[in-house]
Amino acid sequence: MSFKNIFDNSGNEAGSADKSAQKLNKDTPGAGDVSEAVRKLESGRDPWLVRQTAHGAFDVMGFLGPLFQNAQDAAAAQRQVSEDPGSTSKMASSSTKAFGPPKVSISDEDMPKLEDLSKLIANKRSYALIATGLGTSEGLAVDPSRNTAYVADRGGQKLSAVKVDTGAQRVAASALGDLGDVEVDRQATAYTTDWAGGRLLAVNLSDGTSRKIADVPGAFGVALDTAASKAYVANWTDGQLIAVDLPGGRKTTIATGLGQGIAGVALDGRGKAYVGQKDNGGKLYEINLADGTNRVVATLAGASTIRVALDGAGRAYTIDRVNGRLYEITLADGAQRVVASGLGTCAGLALDTVGGWIYVSNGQGQLWQIDQRAAQALGGVGKVVP
After folding, report:
1. What pLDDT sits at residue 282?
2. Shortest CA distance to 225 belongs to which of 198, 265, 195?
3. For 293-304, how does the pLDDT look when each residue is reduced to its tens digit (9 = 90+)?
4. What's 248's domain CATH number?
5. What is the pLDDT of residues 43-73, one digit of tens each?
6. Within a domain: 32
7. Contact 251, 229 (CB under 8 A)
8. pLDDT for 86-122, tens place per residue?
9. For residue 103, is it within any domain?
10. Are residues 46 and 125 in the same domain?
11. Residue 132 is part of which domain span?
């Protein structure tokens, strides 16, 4: 059915109703002025009641007639618009010239509520506390193929393995020194840093044994390039990024002058490393691995960007240990926002891009699992609570 037929039919129906109302108004005794017939009818009854009833009915008939006429006129106008859309465009153009372009204003009341977020992303939860009792975490890695997160306990000098679906945990290795960070490869080997001892260690996750790969003074953050058989280590003390050959241990200084307190390291797989700085302003650096040149991507005022994780889609996540917050940063322009808070003295960060999970560990021995889609949603996750 065409728009013309729709509006023609509605106009015809309104026209028929209009004629019926006119006929009823003309033929009904008493319609219009109060007639002699109405006066005779009312003479034997309570005049107030009859007048309220009869005259009210006449008033209704007087209202319906113009109403049906207006409906008929509206149908005709709608038909004209359907046949000539240009008339609507001209009207909208005139309104824009008179009043200017429409302005959009979003208030706090318009923002999605935290309790509605899970419904908006069609997921039952946006975050969960996976495990507790993990000591003073100072680094975190995740192996999706084993459904396991590895949490570095600096105070206990141990590495814990946690099943992310059940929270079951066990000590994977111990006596690892002043643990600063951990990364895992696909061959059941973890690489950990010993800050006080200035070492990069390889840990056999099958039996818990460990061995030294290289002496790296101030070793703190670590990232793996398994394709190139290299580990990249952040020298907290001297502000350097150092490449270490695996398994030989040969060292190459990639970048210097980054300032004291550089911590987390992440690789984009395209020749760039991203390094977070806990001290001196909470900076996120981008470093060209080919020549060591660097730039500051973002500065998080009052924050400590102790760890960095990349999602492969132009975004970095970093945690603010001082304020217990998770940040999302756009690498192209440094735009940043807090997507989760309430994370305690968080010091471990890992990203499972396959499963869509962000993992955060803290100094209170907690391991959090956060839905990455929830973090990207408007407003983010908000405050997490146990």
Report:
1. 85
2. 265
3. 999 999 998 888
4. 2.120.10.30
5. 554 444 444 444 444 444 444 454 445 545 5
6. yes
7. no
8. 544 454 455 445 445 555 455 555 555 554 544 444 4
9. no
10. no
11. 114-383
Where is the domain boundary, 70, 97, 124? 97
Q: What is the largest CA-CA distance in the chain?
A: 119
**In this structure, are 92 and 169 located in the same domain?**
no
Interval 237-274: pLDDT, tens: 999 999 999 989 999 999 999 988 899 999 999 999 99
Per-residue pLDDT, 96: 47
The C-alpha atoms of residue 192 and residue 139 are separated, in whole angstroms, by 9
User: Quick check: 134 pLDDT over 60?
Assistant: yes
Using the predicted structure, report yes or no on whether residue 235 has a pLDDT greater than 90: yes
> Residues 60, 138: one domain?
no
Flag whether 359 is in a domain: yes
What is the amino acid identity at position 335?
A
The reported pLDDT for the residue numbered 279 is 72
Residues 260 and 218 in one domain: yes
Per the CB < 8 A criterion, the answer to whether 129 and 368 are in contact is yes
Helix, strand, coil percent content, the chain, rounded in steps of 5: 25, 40, 35
The better pLDDT of the pair 375, 15 is held by: 375
226 CB contacts (<8 Å, ≥6 apart)? 185, 186
Based on the fold, state whether residues 118 and 252 are members of the same structural domain. Answer: yes
pLDDT at 7 over 60: no
Last residue of a domain, one of 65, 97, 129: 97
Q: Is residue 109 a part of any domain in this protein?
A: no
Sequence-distant (≥ 6) Cβ neighbours of residue 8 within 8 angstroms: 75, 79
Long-range CB contacts (< 8 A, 24+ apart) of 183-187? 183/141, 183/222, 183/223, 183/224, 183/231, 184/141, 184/142, 184/143, 184/150, 184/224, 185/224, 185/226, 186/143, 186/145, 186/226
Are residues 35 and 166 part of one domain?
no
Check whether the bond before 386 is cis (ω within 30° of 0): no
| Model pLDDT, residue 120 | 43
Token pair recorded at residue 30: 């008493």
Number of domains composing the chain: 2
Do 342 and 259 lie in a common domain?
yes
Q: How many CA atoms lie within 13 A of 193 on its CB side?
A: 31
